[in-house]
Design brief:
The strands form four sheets. Strands 3-2-1-11-12-15 form a six-stranded parallel sheet. It is an alpha/beta fold and 285 residues long. It contains nine helices and 15 strands. Strand 11, helix 8 and strand 12 form a beta-alpha-beta unit.
């Protein structure tokens, strides 16, 4: 099996595309600090005339995500626009029940701004919107077994605003809404998801890139960048978008050590899941 080419810099590869669709958490920052080389790479892409749209499974609208990016040291000139899972999930919420139970931290309540819904207690709810665990610093999905079983017993529809299973916050792995959405689905519950790897978030991102450039941007005009196999890689593959895989993310131990991926093991790992990125890089730079 041929090894997967591991490149050192984005510049040469980016020349082949008019838009860069870049993941955020794990590629641009780790929830604690920005990765300066990644920021510089995106700034250079914009300077070369590319549209840079950040595509993230954050369960909040783009405004609060931009505020978080600034607080972590990501400047506004590193990207043209941000499209979040929260943005595309709002259409699912609008089409769902009016009385919803919010499963997640209070910081995600901006998801409902301007929507005609009422956030109520569990026993009153006609539907569930999950943005994560109530306290992802101390809890795991096992803490939600009883709650999910109660929700399933009432057959409540379950909207998952962040399909990610886990992310790295600094050096710690934390669970995301996707872990609870997966558990609910395994109970036979009705689960709706619009973020990566599903089409709606990519369609919205391509539309935003088209708006930035003032001309249509199709799947062959865009390069996606990400570190998540079942979100970034699967999503790009499903849309027919080329992907640059960042190896030093949540899957690093699957094909070597952090910072030292084995090209052949990496290629085998991707092929075993049916994926073929156009290239890989240890860290975006």
């Amino acid at each position: 099996m041929a090894s997967l080419e591991i490149i050192d810099r984005l510049d040469g590869l980016a020349e082949n595309y008019s838009a860069i669709l870049c993941d955020v958490w794990g590629v641009i920052h780790n929830g604690v600090r920005a990765f300066e080389p990644a920021v510089e790479a995106l700034q250079r892409a914009r300077q070369a005339g590319k549209a840079v749209v950040l595509i993230t499974n954050a369960p909040r609208p783009f405004g609060p995500v931009i505020e978080q990016l600034r607080s972590l040291g990501v400047p506004d000139d590193a990207y043209d626009a941000v499209v979040t899972s929260g943005d595309v999930t709002r259409s699912l919420i609008e089409a769902g029940p009016r009385k919803i139970f919010h499963l997640g931290p209070d910081r995600d309540m901006t998801l409902y701004d301007g929507l005609d819904v009422e956030v109520v207690e569990e026993f009153e709810a006609a539907g569930v919107v999950c943005t994560g665990l109530f306290d992802d610093r101390t809890e795991t999905p096992d803490d939600y077994t009883d709650l999910l079983q109660r929700l399933r017993a009432r057959d409540l529809p379950f909207i998952c605003a962040n399909p990610d299973i886990v992310v790295e916050r600094g050096d710690t792995m934390i669970y995301c809404a996707g872990a609870l959405g997966r558990a609910y689905s395994q109970l036979g519950g009705r689960t709706q998801i619009a973020g990566k790897p599903y089409h709606p978030i990519y369609e919205a991102t391509l539309a935003k890139a088209s708006e930035v450039l003032g001309r249509p941007v199709g799947v062959k005009d865009a390069l996606a960048i990400g570190d998540g196999l079942m979100t970034d890689v699967k999503g790009a593959a499903g849309m027919g978008i080329d992907l640059l895989f960042v190896t030093d993310g949540i899957h690093a131990s699957e094909y070597g050590e952090s910072g030292r991926p084995d090209p052949e093991r990496l290629a085998h790992y991707m092929a075993s899941h049916g994926f073929a990125p156009v290239a890989a890089t240890v860290r975006l730079r």
